[in-house]
Fold each of these.
Amino acid sequence: MASEPVARAVAEEIGRWGSMKQTGVSLRYMMEFGSRPTERNLLLSAQFLQRELPIRIARRALELECLPFGLSNKPAVLKVRDWYLDSFRDIRFFPEVRNRSDEHAFTQMIKMIKVRHNNVVPTMALGVQQLKKDLRNTRKVHRGFDEIDEFLDRFYMSRIGIRMLIGQHVALHDPNPEPGVIGLINTRLSPVQLAQIACEDARSICLREYGSAPDINIYGDPKFTFPYVASHLHLMLLELVKNSLRAVQERYMNSDRDVPPVRIIVADGEEDVTIKVSDEGGGIARSGLPRIFTYLYSTAKNPPELDGPNEGATMAGYGFGLPISRLYARYFGGDLQIISMEGYGTDAYLHLSRLGDSEEPLP
Ligand SMILES: Nc1ncnc2c1ncn2[C@@H]1O[C@H](COP(=O)(O)OP(=O)(O)OP(=O)(O)O)[C@@H](O)[C@H]1O
Ligand SMILES: [Mg+2]
């Protein structure tokens, strides 16, 4: 337990750092900077993070304290806030990084911070679900929930940025990176090949849950590549494909008609790489469309247990798949759109910016 004056001092520090200006970086900048991971550059990178991370973390800690409907006081949200406070302290109490050995210790420390925050998304989801249960009997909550959705968008967007910065810095220490890989960025990522991997993963989850899985056809040139973060693209594709498989599966499960395959089309434009995930799973009612990008909307029946590191391992449940995927797309200047034909199927358009020079959105 921190003593009263210490707690007050930390609160003051958080207030001060939380009002400083954040500095964004672009995919292209990370790629250019990371292509020369010299000792000097790693030191510069650590020094940048030592100043930038506390600013970003403090902002989130401040916001976590004043959420509407008493969400801030839910045990799960308090837990998340403590992680942010601990990480803020870890970085602020770390001595100024001046040389190689400081840099190594600093890198170990931020690597640990990243692990500490692994379960932020399901833990926040739990807090939001607790709140939703409390408010079930009050009618007028919908307007107020917009505020929570907007908060969660800012919060998760910021989290993507923080994890990208830490992950990139840590990964630049790899002594034998694979050819074409700069930190977390794969400069020659084949979206078709990655789609194949994401589809296998989604199908095996579907098989496990339903005992069968619709086929998936992928159209596009497997030799086409562009620079992107493979883990981000994998996450987005996995979420979209899971949604499509679930829709098709549920629609055809008890019928003897032929199951129509899910189709994935990869287009390489000059500005964007666009990936369309197209299914004949019956679509989404127009009245439900405004809600699919909110964090509380899911038509899944049994929300999964929210206490393990099982992000993405079930077919459906939290209602987080689409909003989070759209944040990942927007993080590097892309976007995600869903077009539905109720009674037929759904097309998801994932646009990824090819130029890579849009700056991080900094909520
Ligand atoms: N391809 C699709 N066809 C029909 N309905 C869809 C499709 N994609 C999404 N939906 C609807 O939108 C809702 C929200 O999707 P989202 O991926 O955000 O959450 P989820 O799949 O319910 O849970 P999870 O967080 O596990 O992804 C789904 O519950 C489903 O009702
Ligand atoms: Mg989903």
Amino acid sequence: MSVVTDAMAEARSLDLFKPHGAFEVHCSNCHTRLDPMGDCPNCGLIGRPEAEIARRLQGDPAGTEKLLRGAIAKRRAYSAG
Ligand SMILES: [Zn+2]
């Protein structure tokens, strides 16, 4: 398994993929205002479907891994706090 596949699996296990509705501006988990990409800067929730992230991974593996790692780190910090 690649490093990035591990990151996807970890994000999935943390339940980070929670697609929001088109006009949703607040996190469904912690109610923080979402960033322009629809991701939560507080708890690390990724407001996009896993399939979309997997597609993005094909074109931009480094950037997507960074996104996943960032989201995982935020969720860990959030859970700990
Ligand atoms: Zn949140």
Amino acid sequence: MGFSHTQRPLAVVTGASGGIGAAVAGQLARRGVRTVLVARRTERLRELARELAPLAPSVVMSLDLADQDAIEPAMRDLLREHGPVDILIHAAGYGILREFLEQRPEDIHRLMQVHYFAAVQMIHAVLPGMVERRHGHIINIGSIAAKVGPWGHCGYSAAKAALQSLTHTLAAEYGDRGVHFSYVQPGIVNSAFFEGPGYRHLASNLRRHALSCDYVARRIVGLLDRPRLELVVPRHHRVVDWLKLLLPMVVHGTIARRSRPDTSTQQPAPPDWRPSESQVISPALTGSGSSQPKDRIA
Ligand SMILES: NC(=O)c1ccc[n+]([C@@H]2O[C@H](COP(=O)([O-])OP(=O)(O)OC[C@H]3O[C@@H](n4cnc5c(N)ncnc54)[C@H](OP(=O)(O)O)[C@@H]3O)[C@@H](O)[C@H]2O)c1
């Protein structure tokens, strides 16, 4: 599928097959932005592209961001076929909620690849064009986990912290050349994220206080009108920054205590749970309209 309105701005959204990324793609389409929808579940992306077609054209890019070697050629093809990218929103991601010794180094490496190195690779591809045209916006979706280091998130927190540092550094280096950089820190958002390894027992409790994907997506896309380096959603979560400055040890102790699972209610990991096995698309979950993620670590 190709674009027909080449005069429209071009956005690339990773994680567009569900949750925040899909909602972001919807918001962009309302603005008439052409969007490249990136994720692994091609059928989901196609469905979304069909839904958005009355608003704006989009194309599907099937890509596993854990596959380091696949990203550069995919981005090269994209730029050749569709021209320079105006907006890159990196929303793809997943978490693993396990103690450090229950995650293998390669699991942590994979988290770093999807959240951080994939962003590095994609930004490397699109930034030269943005700098040349003195125009562009790169938005990375982070997490409060980067700042507070909660229990069970050794890989996830580090990956998000790296993404935050990358965003800040890029803003320092290229922010005066017409390119905007933003790091978004959402609170708990109602998405399939909590179907991931280790989270299931928390999901219903967390979702009670969760923000909707649409609300978060509106705030993210609003950055295009009023660019800023950091966006915290909801706003009151910024209090964590102040508390960390004033009482760092108290904040650390509180987070460590409160994020530790209640072992009396925690479901044990399935006996064959292997976090770094390849993420498998389960046929049972590939039906349209399913709210479940289609591929999770088996
Ligand atoms: N939900 C929350 O409470 C929350 C809070 C703070 C931050 N965040 C962050 O927000 C972002 C979006 O999460 P979400 O809540 O929207 O979760 P989600 O509904 O599970 O969506 C995750 C998206 O990432 C994609 N993805 C995962 N692994 C991928 C890979 N290897 N290659 C390509 N795409 C991949 C998934 O697509 P495929 O499975 O089709 O590949 C899916 O589109 C993530 O970075 C997450 O860390 C979420």
